[in-house]
Amino acid sequence: MKNYKTLIVILLITLCFAAGYTVRTNAREKATVRRVSVSPVRAPGVPVATTQLCSAGDIDLGPLEIMLTVLRNVREHFVDPITPSDEGRMAREALRAMLASFQDPNTRFLDPEQLKLVREAAEGRFHGIGAILGMKKVKTGNIQEEHLVVITPIDSGPAAKAGLKSGDHIIAIDGRDVLPLDPFQRANEVIKEERKKAVDRNLLKKHIESETKRIEEGIPILKAERMLTSEDDKEFELTVLRDGATKPIKVKVKTQDFTVEPVSWTLVNDGRFGYIRISCFSNSTPQQFETAVKELKSKEVEGLVLDLRDVAAGDLETVLSVARLSVPERVFGFECKSRNRKIPIRIERCSDERVWKGSLVVLVNAGTARMAEALAVALRDNLSAKLVGESTYGDPSVVTLMELSDGSGVSITTGQMAPPKSSDYRGKGLAPDVSASSSEQMKEAIKILESLAKRSVSTLSRN
Amino acid sequence: MSRLGVDRIIPVVFLLFAAFIVGFLAPDVLASRALHQFTASLQLLPQRLESLLLEGQSKSQTEPLPVIETYSAVLERLKAEYYGAEIDERKLTYSAIRGMLSALNDPFTRFLDPEEYKSMREENEGNFTGIGAQLDTNKDGEVYIKEPLPDTPAMRAGVKANDVIVSVDGKPIKGLDIEQVVKMIRGPAGTKVKLGLRRKGTPKIIYKVITRQVVQFRMVKSQMLDEKNGIGYIRLYQFNEQCDTQFDQALTQLEKRHLKGLILDLRGNPGGLLQAAVDIGSRFIDSGPVVVIQERGGQKNPIYVKEEKHNHKRYPLVVLVDKHSASASEIVAGAIKDDAVGTLVGTKTFGKGRVQTIMPLQDGSAVAITTAKYLTPSGTDIHKKGIEPDIKVEAPDTFEVGDLKTDVQLAKALQVLKVKMGILPESVLEELKRAAQAKTPTAATAAASAQSPR
């Protein structure tokens, strides 16, 4: 009886010790991560740099000290007293301006709504016109302006239905110009040019007035992006510049919230070959892809067409889980990081019966972007899979998200993927092995698979 | 179970609590190598337990971000991980400060980098070191001397208007911006600069070595508009430390030529120093406040007329204003209108009723912070509203300021002043007012003027 009681007490003491330990470690973690937490959207195998919060004493002097002095002066002297919510806004705007000065489309501040969009895209849910949009720098003469471009219209989304294509430049929304980050460049250029030439003041004034009007009525590019991806029900008339078209095209698009089925598959060519379409890399893509491969293997198809056209969203982790099912235990690529670090990214092993081992053709186009490009090139370099279609988008950036405590976030370019063997494709895009226009791509892919199948048959018969 | 009395429970509970605390401290013990670290964590124990309790309560709402902590965390992360161009911490932080201030929704609270602050100081002091010549670009894109200012090194060295600058210190300047050329010519007082000049009618390039000096801006331009009736005209370009002295001199000059009525031109005047506005305003107001400063917190501090500025006679007065007359100009115009010591002619003023304080920072940059509001003597806040003129006269599309033939506003101001002086009948005034009402305001205003109001 006595022993029994002592045992209980000792047990309780141990429990309390454990409880204390966990509470403390949890609290410690929170203290460092509470305000700036690193989101799970990041590359595996890379150590997470926990960002320690700085107490006032630790803050690096220099520029930061200047900022602190400015903040203190504003707190003490600004004509209207500063509220905590003012300070929250100040923090956001400081980050927004600082990150914008990088002039890097992937390094930017994300408002809570925008961060939500990124998160939902990982679940296959999309809003607005249903397109992955991006900024592309376009240089004309001395002016370098950012254009709002359609990287990828998402399958079954309003943009795809309305006929928007990857690579389209959206230059106006409802007749209002989409303005670059610095909208005054053009006006300044006009003034400069006019000053050099004959000074016709009236003409100059007219130029400036029309430019002022354009800027006043226009929509800043970041706002335009928000408009086109927001959850409100709206209809927009977009003015679009397209390669090959002489005049801007007008397209009417209604916004809509929708969910994309990430993977679909079918048999082609009388069941000889399989076709798998990946519409987006969401959390359920690897699992669905595996099922598709399994089904096709059970149907004993001789070759596989993997359709990666118009796929942009997705993170490295998901793409690696897909790659695993065709090229396990190989090098997916190299992640080039700051300070000249180059880290090989290995694909995990995978049991034999789950892996696709037959011949493979990958369909790509200008909408094959970011991680989809990385996958395409990894398949080519490791498996000599043929790429059929058009040059890809050409953005190998690795982007890391930081989530801030108020629901907003920061996205930062933290690296660049380098293919295992192929050369760097930043800006240029991956050149396909066989170029084909969109209507011919499937036909070309089948042709390649057929010739591959024939070859394997002939090698068999020779043996 | 009845034997489980209080005397037994207390030690057990105590033991349990001790175990919890030991567990709580264990991570620190494991992490720390030295004894003092452990004692430090012992001392922090109460705070840590407290913050643990507090956190449970305030978890629901998302706190606003702490400015400096968030910024430095993101900056540290960028420094460690950003892939791309080298990070210039100073440049980034300057952008961040600008962004931070933009959140206050007050365009006048702004950051000035060292270069901007320096040129602002020069403007406010009303002098700079250089050679004292106004430069411009001609239609071939060449930089030329528009006007060597009187009593300056440029003038003394024999630089003439319309000389085209071809080289500075032996370096050809072809293709350079006017700003770049100005930068090359400017420098510390006492140093020399060699200009290569091309002059019409002279085949060879003329070289002039000029010693840089402190040169004063001319803030005041004055002339006798109507010698017969003694009508003088004074234009004030900006309110800086020099302008009251220069105004005093100009008025004395005009008085020598039998001044009887005065036109004060504040068009295009973006303002400047509050003190200068009070000085100039005092010259027109008899008594009472020139302006009322409403401090943070609402306290009102009137700034009264400076009696020592009453060293001239009072004359019938017309003040010209337009939409670029801002800040200090509006203090003067507002006081004159409120006290009815003059008539305002022109268009509505800019509407800036906020006072900024410039605070210099450690690294040569500065921050201008809106620290107070100002009200006109009668207590009106003109911010974002502007001051309506007594007689509205729109400016034509193109005109030359001070030229009676093209400057319609000045011509009308002259008529108004003549009525006030009794030279023209009252009916002229009525007619002017009617004309202003009949005319729908045309939007044709000089957008090209890039003056930023201060």
Characterize the structure shown.
The complex is a heterodimer of chains A (463) and B (454). With 463 residues, chain A is an alpha+beta fold. Chain A has twelve helices and 21 strands. Chain A is flat and about 80 Å long. Chain A starts with a helix and ends with a helix. Chain B is an alpha+beta fold and 454 residues long. Helix content of chain B is 36%, strand content 22%. Chain B has a six-stranded mixed beta sheet, with helices on both faces. In chain B, strands 1, 13, 14, 17 and 18 form a five-stranded antiparallel beta sheet that branches. Chain B has a four-stranded antiparallel beta sheet with strand order 6-5-7-8. In chain B, strand 11, helix 8 and strand 12 (261-265) form a beta-alpha-beta unit. Chain B starts with 5 loop residues before the first helix and ends in a 16-residue tail after the last helix. Mean pLDDT of chain B is 85; it is low at 440-454. Chains A and B meet through helix 1, helix 2, helix 3, helix 7 and strand 19 of A and helix 1, helix 2, helix 3, helix 4 and strand 17 of B.
By CATH reckoning, the class of the largest domain in chain A would read: Alpha Beta
Quote the beta fraction of chain A: 15-25%
**Uncertain runs of chain B:** 440-454
SS content category of chain A: alpha+beta
The largest pleated sheet of chain A is described as: 7 strands, mixed
Which CATH class of the largest domain in chain B is shown?
Alpha Beta
Total separate domains of chain B: 4
Helix content of chain B: 25-40%
Helical fraction of chain A: 25-40%
Oligomer: heterodimer
In short:
The complex is a heterodimer of chains A (463) and B (454). Chain A is 38% helix and 25% strand.
Topology:
The complex is a heterodimer of chains A (463) and B (454).
Chain A: H1 2-33, E1 36-38, H2 63-77, H3 84-100, E2 108-110, H4 112-121, E3 125-126, E4 131-140, E5 143-153, H5 158-162, E6 169-173, E7 176-179, H6 185-196, H7 201-217, E8 219-220, H8 221-229, E9 235-241, E10 249-254, E11 258-259, E12 263-268, E13 273-278, H9 285-298, E14 303-307, H10 316-323, E15 331-337, E16 341-346, E17 359-364, H11 371-383, E18 386-389, E19 397-404, E20 409-418, E21 434-435, H12 441-462
Parallel strand pairs in A: 7-8, 13-14, 14-17, 17-18, 18-21
Antiparallel strand pairs in A: 1-19, 2-20, 3-11, 4-5, 5-6, 6-7, 6-9, 9-10, 12-13, 15-16, 15-20, 19-20
Chain B: H1 6-31, H2 35-57, H3 67-81, H4 89-102, E1 110-112, H5 114-125, E2 127-130, E3 133-137, E4 143-148, H6 153-157, E5 164-168, E6 171-172, H7 178-185, E7 192-198, E8 206-211, E9 213-216, E10 220-226, E11 231-236, H8 243-256, E12 261-265, H9 274-282, E13 289-295, E14 300-304, E15 317-321, H10 328-338, E16 343-346, E17 354-360, E18 366-375, E19 391-392, H11 408-420, H12 427-438
Parallel strand pairs in B: 11-12, 12-15, 15-16, 16-19
Antiparallel strand pairs in B: 1-18, 2-9, 3-4, 5-6, 5-7, 7-8, 10-11, 13-14, 13-18, 17-18
Helix pairs in contact in B: 9-10
